[in-house]
Amino acid sequence: MKLSEPVVARRTGRPLSFDRDAALVVAMRLFWQHGYEATSIADLTRAMGITPPSLYTAFGDKRQLFRAAVDRYLGGAATVTAAIAGAASARDAARDLLTAAALGDTGDDTPAGCLLASAIVSSSASAADVREEVAAIRRGIEAALRARIARDVANGVLPADSDADAMAGLVFAVVQGMSTLAKDGAGRDKLLRIVDGAMRAWPGA
Questions:
Q1: Domain range holding 146?
Q2: Which of 29, 130, 135, 201 is 20 to 30 A away from residue 73, measured at CA?
Q3: pLDDT band with cut points at 50, 70 and 90 for residue 125
């Protein structure tokens, strides 16, 4: 769930020096593939090619590293919400979100599905705080879309009886559903056709 596909650097070998951004991309991919709780510090340091002290010095603990990975994946949650607010219309904002999700879910060099949907699958108490942080990010982006829809309703761009909350919720239901479909093997073409179908249901389409 983002407005651009994550930029993923392909590692060609153990770096001679610690490249923080390259290591972060590796961590992001690991969390994306295996989930937050199933990814251990040992897994992270081995894949990132660094020692545990280097990880703690650069990123703090595992939770802070995950936060940084999510921010890297989104390109910054504030950037996403700003793009929604600045879109020419709520329809454009919705289509951009859906299209970016379809592309990001089916990247050639990344795990299938959405990092935000894939990383937190455990119901254990130890992951509860992280799960809530991810949910809060999603709610914040949905709120930005809801506000953009409400603005178009107020300006007469959308019908006065449009339900901004339901419309924003529908977009995010499609985003979440596409992530599941991608993890089940659906390809990019199918997801983009789903985006087209969802947008045909937009008022005034």
A1: 75-200
A2: 201
A3: low
Cα-based angle 102, 157, 155 (whole degrees, multiple of 5): 120
CATH code where residue 63 lies: 1.10.10.60
Residue 14 lies in a domain: no
CA 69 to CA 52: how far, in whole Å? 17
Closest CA to 81 of 68, 102, 96: 96
Rounded Cα–Cα distance for residues 188 and 205 (Å): 23
SS3 label, residue 29 = helix
CA distance 173 to 115: 15
pLDDT one-digit tens code per residue, 154-182: 999 999 999 999 999 999 999 999 999 99
Report CA-CA distances (Å) from 175 to 74, 76, 87.
14, 18, 18
